[in-house]
Amino acid sequence: MSQVQNKQLELFNHSKPLELIFKQTRFTFIDFFATVSINYDNPEEYKKKFIQKIYKPQKFKPIMAQHCCKLQGFPDWFEFHHKNSIAKKKFGNSVPIPVVYHIAKELINFLTIP
Predict the structure, then answer these.
(1) Is 10 within the bounds of a domain?
(2) Domain limits at 59?
(3) Which residue, 3, 53, 76, 85, has most beta carbons within 10 Å?
């Protein structure tokens, strides 16, 4: 078993499901997400099912800048850097817009209460 596969299996030594997969390239890791969902309480059973239902049939996709944009709450029309790695880094350093909106709304409500 390769070093990357060992790292992938180490990720699943916990009770909460984590359906991210990493592929090592020459300089970095590429992040993936599973296209199907599995959920088991037993970590050993989860590992077996993950390998059987997601890893071996390759039911995963690379995380692209478009996915990061959606996850962070940016609107569909938002334009981001054309290079995927740069855009993902910028989204990773951003604050989710819906969170800022709801915090600001609650602060305004708090400050306007007599």
Answers:
(1) no
(2) 30-112
(3) 53
- State the greatest distance between any 2 C-alpha atoms of the chain, in Å, as a whole number: 65
Assigned token pair, 111: 């400050």
Q: CB–CB of 22/30 below 8 Å?
A: yes
Question: What's the pLDDT tens digit per position in 76-92?
Answer: 899 999 998 899 889 88
Average pLDDT score, the chain = 78
Burial class (CB in 10 A: 0-12, 13-18, 19+), 47: middle
Domain total in the chain: 1
Measured CA to CA, the distance from residue 105 to residue 82 in angstroms comes to 33
Q: Tokens 């596969």 sit at which residue?
A: 5
Name which of 45, 35, 34 is nearest 12 in CA terms: 45
* pTM, rounded to two decimals: 0.56
Gyration radius from the chain CA atoms: 19
| C-alpha to C-alpha distance for 67 and 70, rounded to whole angstroms | 5
